[in-house]
Design a protein that fits this description.
- The chain is of the alpha+beta class and 280 residues long.
- It has 2 domains: 69 residues, Arc Repressor Mutant, subunit A (Orthogonal Bundle); 176 residues, 2-Layer Sandwich (Beta-Lactamase), CATH 3.30.450.40.
- The protein has 9 helices and 9 strands.
- A hairpin with a 2-residue loop joins strand 4 and strand 5.
- The chain is globular.
């Protein structure tokens, strides 16, 4: 989640002028209160929620206590924190997304063969969102899991997904190019050139740009219309081998697994679209 100026979570910034007439500000603000909590802000006081969302204390109090009454937030002393019931909202999305279920056996096998962590993500705005993951070991300071969001521009899966977009749409998905390590590519022109390279070769490798010591390799997953619907990656600790060796060892495995997942997605689409009584 990109913070707005002053460290606040944006409220209503993505709403176009055309959709303003159908925009419900109170829902936007309530969701902003939920998004104020993350791995680095697991417990927040009323004042902290107000500060992170840009809401007044009175408004933040109303939203927090409404969420508390619905079972999504709890209060202990002066600190609020999210409740497990909030997972229902995420599950509503995951339950309609077939890719994690279809991909599960394939990424488990790949993780076993490759001996590395394997993940699948989709693009959401300027972030990638993890929808499936098999972790062989902890290789990042951030504990990656389903639902984790990372900036697309600085991840291998993100670059695969960005490269699949029409050129006219890429810029709006880049967000702020913040330097994460000394290797992070933050020059917009160079990044666009890198995305063109990814588009041409069909895969992306990111070497210690997201976090020191982290290297990842990603390829696309396609649907029945040959559109890129997700990205699959293998991530490892960089010092284990040269980047060229890493690509040489893992790319063929990654492409084979992505092809198997794409075939499963395409078959599921054909079955879903099959008319009643077809083939009987």
């Amino acid at each position: 989640m990109q913070l707005a100026r002053g460290g606040r979570l944006p409220v209503g910034e993505a709403v176009s002028a055309r959709s303003r007439s159908e925009y419900v500000q109170s829902l936007d603000r309530g969701l902003a209160v939920i998004r104020a909590f993350d791995a680095d802000h697991q417990r927040l006081t009323l004042s902290e929620v107000a500060d992170r969302t840009g809401l007044t204390r009175a408004a933040a109090r109303r939203f927090l206590h409404t969420l508390r009454g619905l079972g999504y937030v709890s209060l202990e002393g002066r600190q609020f924190f999210l409740r497990p019931r909030l997972l229902e909202l995420g599950y509503s999305y995951l339950s309609t997304l077939s890719i994690p279920q279809l991909a599960a056996p394939h990424i488990e096998q790949l993780a076993c063969v490759a001996g590395e962590s394997v993940s699948i993500s989709v693009l959401d705005g300027s972030d990638v969102v993890y929808v499936a993951r098999i972790a062989s070991r902890r290789i990042m300071s951030v504990d990656l899991s389903v639902g984790t969001r990372l900036p697309a521009y600085v991840t291998s899966m993100g670059r695969v997904l960005l490269a699949a977009l029409p050129s006219s749409e890429v810029d709006q998905h880049l967000g702020d190019l913040v330097r994460r390590t000394e290797r992070t590519l933050t020059d917009r022109a160079r990044l666009l050139a890198e995305l063109q390279k990814v588009r041409e070769q069909g895969w992306a490798v990111v070497d210690e740009e997201l976090e020191d010591g982290l290297r990842s390799l990603a390829v696309p997953v396609h649907d029945s219309l040959d559109q890129v619907v997700a990205a699959l990656n293998i991530s490892t600790v960089a010092p284990r081998a040269a980047v060229e060796t890493f690509v040489a060892e893992q790319l063929a495995r990654l492409l084979k697994t992505a092809a198997a997942i794409s075939a499963a997605v395409q078959e599921q689409t054909r079955v879903t679209a099959r008319p009643a009584g077809f083939g009987l």
